[in-house]
Here is the input.
Amino acid sequence: MKDFRNLQTIDTSLDYQNLQVQSLQLQHNNKLLKNILIGTAIICIAILSINHYIENKKEEVTY
Here is the structure.
């Protein structure tokens, strides 16, 4: 009976450790996704800025 309790304790401990690892993995994934989102936003702003600059240059040539 005592061995069974020890096994239950070990099993519970392993479950808890697995949850901690999964939590850390999710935190890491969230950071990666946040960085990807920020990078995408920066690229979009750069593209819009370049497009705006090109449009202004076209208007200058037209006049």
